[in-house]
Amino acid sequence: MPIKNTINQEEKIIYSICEGLMVREDFDLYVSRIWSHYKYYGFNELFDTVQGDWSEFDFGYLFSVAETAAKLKTIDTNSKLAWVVLEGKQKELTDFYRSAKLLLPVKSRSLEAFYLYDEAMQWLKA
Q1: pTM as predicted
Q2: Which of 35, 49, 59, 107 makes the best surface tag, with the fewest CB within 10 Å?
Q3: How do residues 24-58 score in pLDDT, each as one tens digit?
Q4: CA separation for the pair 17, 101 (Å, rounded)
Q5: Is the dihedral of CA 52, 112, 39, 72 positive or negative?
Q6: Local structure of 99: helix, strand or coil
Q7: For 59-100, how does the pLDDT look when each residue is reduced to its tens digit (9 = 90+)?
């Protein structure tokens, strides 16, 4: 599976790492496995996309993901989602996703993109 997760119950952080070619089915499965479960309510998440190939993703699909996430009662709006990205398409997709969430009529969790893992962790733990 291109998205691997490690759950740290003590820190209340989900560590997600993408590897290889990402397709919609991979991300849909991830949303159903992680974002759709109440057992992770209140958890922050570090989503590392650096080793993933996101060339198959487009802005329309990410808008639908933003809509789905906004409807999920299993995501704490006070939690944070940090994406570690490369410059280029990964950053553009993350920026678009964040903008799409702002267009939706519901409050959602904070999302920031970082180029460095350590900076993302600092933000999550602040």
Answers
A1: 0.87
A2: 107
A3: 899 899 999 999 999 999 999 999 999 988 888 88
A4: 22
A5: negative
A6: helix
A7: 788 888 888 888 889 999 999 999 998 887 778 877 877 777
The two structure tokens encoding residue 24: 């919609």
> Token pair of 77, please?
């709006």
Architecture of the domain made up of 3-125: 3-Layer(aba) Sandwich (3.40)
Phi, psi dihedral angles at 36 (to 5 degrees): -95, 10
SS3 content of the chain, % helix, strand, coil (to 5): 40, 30, 30
CA dihedral of 25, 95, 92, 76, whole degrees rounded to 10: -20
Q: Where are the domains of the chain?
A: 3-125
Per the DSSP assignment, residues forming a β-bridge with 81 are: 45, 111
